[in-house]
Amino acid sequence: MRTIVVGSRQSVLALTQTGQVIDDLKRLAKEHGLEYDFTIKKIVTKGDRILDVTLSKVGGKGLFVKEIEQAMLDGEIDMAVHSMKDMPSVLPEGLVSGAVPARKDPRDCLISKEGTTLDDLPQGAKVGTSSLRRSSQLKAYRPDLQIHWIRGNIDSRIRKMEDGEFQAIILATAGLQRMGWEDRITSYLPVEISLPAVGQGALGIECRESDAELLHLLSLYNDEVTARTVAAERKFLSELNGGCQVPIGAYAVLKNGEASDSRGAQKVIQLTGMVGSPDGEIVLKESAEGTDPESLGAEVAAKLRAKGAEKILAQVRG
Ligand SMILES: NCc1[nH]cc(CCC(=O)O)c1CC(=O)O
């Protein structure tokens, strides 16, 4: 029996979501009369080593995936599970996206000390986030809030809030769900207030292009609607030359609102994209509909460019 070696970062979130994917794949394999063993190989990435520094200052795309991709190309590992948010838009020669599993809740959420909602946070409350996209939209909605930079894994961010450094923090719902910490969430931010990061809540599974056997197993795990909507968001981001540290958000859904559909390939997608200044003074948003994810992503990017998105992004990039 083949043992599939899965590379993973060492963070609790990475190991947890990798473990969940392995459980799903084992179940799927069995349903199709296949049997595989899986083993996890931990890999330290550059992004993990510099977590204490402001990532936007260090820069570089794919900070969390480079070492993992090299191990895959070298044959040390066979596949890897990434948060879609952290996945670069261009994969290296020889590697492909094997599956995009069904997306979890894409919304940002608030964890506050007193258990309040965003609207009920006291005037001038100190809120921690490490995302320019979140700070932009938060300041636009509540200009009185003081936004402070917070880094680290989600467990250490929650600890910093409990220790009194912040009255609240903003995180991705999906990460907390995967950790089984959903009960910590005190309110959900509607996508109208905080448009999520591109691919938020979705995972991407990468493997070698030449591994036909694994690609077959992964194809059974692919969710067509998630793959298409996320592709539209990612095309939008790459059209604006965005990495993960830019004040850009995007969210795509099927027009009928269904999260998944067996005939997902034909359904019309609605994509909304945003670009904002980190201080929240400007938040530009545009939407469009279409069936082709790539042209839809490009269309929304063009609409935002026509509104002056490049100027905002140029200021952020310095
Ligand atoms: N930026 C870090 C990151 N990358 C993926 C997640 C978890 C959520 C997801 O899978 O989209 C998080 C944490 C967060 O943004 O709160």
UniProtKB/TrEMBL annotation:
Pathway note: Porphyrin-containing compound metabolism; protoporphyrin-IX biosynthesis; coproporphyrinogen-III from 5-aminolevulinate: step 2/4
Indicate the enzyme's highest-level EC class. Answer: transferase
Q: Which BP terms in the Gene Ontology apply to this protein?
A: protoporphyrinogen IX biosynthetic process
Q: Does the keyword Transferase apply?
A: yes
Which SUPFAM superfamilies does this one have? Periplasmic binding protein-like II, Porphobilinogen deaminase (hydroxymethylbilane synthase), C-terminal domain
The Porphobilinogen deaminase N-terminal domain extends over 4-214
Which cofactors are reported in the record for this sequence?
dipyrromethane
What UniProt keywords are attached to this protein's entry? Porphyrin biosynthesis, Transferase
Tree of life domain: Bacteria
- Gene Ontology cellular-component annotations: cytoplasm
The GO terms this record gives for MF are: hydroxymethylbilane synthase activity
The UniProt catalytic activity note for this protein reads: 4 porphobilinogen + H2O = hydroxymethylbilane + 4 NH4(+)
Pfam families attached to this UniProt entry: Porphobil_deam (PF01379), Porphobil_deamC (PF03900)
Q: InterPro entries from the xrefs?
A: HemC, Porphobilin_deaminase_cofac_BS, Porphobilin_deaminase_N, Porphobilinogen_deaminase_C, Porphobilinogen_deaminase_C_sf
What is this protein's function per UniProt? Tetrapolymerization of the monopyrrole PBG into the hydroxymethylbilane pre-uroporphyrinogen in several discrete steps.
Miscellaneous section = The porphobilinogen subunits are added to the dipyrromethane group.
Per the record, the similarity remark reads:
Belongs to the HMBS family.
How does this protein assemble?
Answer: Monomer.
Q: What is this protein called?
A: Porphobilinogen deaminase
Q: Which organism is it from?
A: Paenibacillus solani
